[in-house]
Amino acid sequence: MGIIEVAHLSKRYGEKVAVADVSFTVERGEIFGILGPNGAGKTTTVECLEGLRRPDGGTIRVLGLDPRRDTAELRRRLGVQLQETQLPDRLRVGEALELYASFYDAPADPGELLDELGLTGVRGTAYRKLSGGQKQRVSIALALIGRPEVAVLDELTTGLDPQARRDTWDVIEGIRDRGVTILLVTHFMAEAERLCDRIAVIDAGRVAAIDTPGGLVARVTDEQTVRFRPSRPVGDDLFTALPEVRRVQRNGGRIVITGTGELVQAVTSVLARNQVVAGELRVEQAGLDEAFVALTGRTIERGV
Ligand SMILES: Nc1ncnc2c1ncn2[C@@H]1O[C@H](COP(=O)(O)OP(=O)(O)OP(=O)(O)O)[C@@H](O)[C@H]1O
User: For 251-299, what is each residue's pLDDT tens digit?
Assistant: First the structure.
């Protein structure tokens, strides 16, 4: 059984269909991403599984619990980071953690958590004086203070600069390594690519695809391109004879070979057999960006 199971979820606001039909299962220990453009229905989906909204249709189980019925138990076992944590301005970081810790029977140690998130130095600082990245890490700390088995992180790095965003990614990987299952909502491509074991691509309230980042790319194309400058002149026929090769092009002194499968290995072995050295060798592969466009017909931000 998955740690989170969502089946045929639907939710509308008046006439507006926010979630039309969303199903996915999150396994214990993974970082599962929900990736989609603004307005795709990501937040509505996670708010339903947090028990904050009542779905119009479908079923949801989180840790085997029904979010609408077992709200109190779910609150103890699910860590939730809100889109914008609003804490009183004067509250100090350490006090905020102590306060939230008091809501749980067996909370994490606030000092250890601050240390892990690199916040020890601002323990006595008022929340309003923190940088965007520090505020974000406080909101992650608050999501983890109850030692949850599952944490839902929504738009984790929105508004952060690239360095703060990368630092936050390291933090998230550390949390996963401690065994916390993470449901990560994002509209940044780079974030999903870097962090997620599997991704549900959501568009207009529906799941367009669920797969590993590599699997999503492979669904769309397994074409790759190898570029290099040969150490001596070679004919195209050397490469066109390889089953992996689709096209050979020339670009100045460079050879550009497009193909599939074990293309890089095939090209480099034929070069080695013919004593040609490949200078300035580059390999390019379609990425999640291309896969996302092919699946949804839209582009979204990369995020770094
Ligand atoms: N309370 C509400 N009342 C009416 N419409 C809403 C409400 N909340 C969301 N919507 C609409 O439902 C759709 C889905 O919104 P939702 O916030 O779930 O998307 P999202 O993928 O999380 O987007 P974002 O990345 O912008 O947060 C959007 O068209 C949004 O305008």
Answer: 999 999 999 989 999 999 999 999 999 999 999 887 888 888 888 888 8
- Nearest atom within ligand 1 for CA of residue 19: 14
ipTM beyond 0.90?
yes
Q: Report the candidate in 191, 225, 186, 206 with the shortest Cα–Cα distance to residue 295.
A: 206
Nearest-CA residue for ligand 1 atom 31 is 39
Would you say 278 and 272 are in contact if contact means Cβ atoms under 8 Å apart?
no
The atom of ligand 1 lying closest to the CA of 202 is: 21
DSSP state of 58: E
Of the pLDDT bands very low, low, confident and very high (cuts 50, 70, 90), residue 187 is confident
Share of the chain residues as helix, strand and coil, in percent rounded to the nearest 5? 35, 30, 35
Determine whether the shortest distance from the Cβ of 42 to ligand 1 is under 6 A. yes
Ligand 1 center to 70 CA (angstroms): 25
CA distance 263 to 260: 6
Residues in contact with 194: Cβ distance below 8 Å, sequence separation at least 6, in sequence order: 169
Q: Are 111 and 119 in contact (CB under 8 A)?
A: no
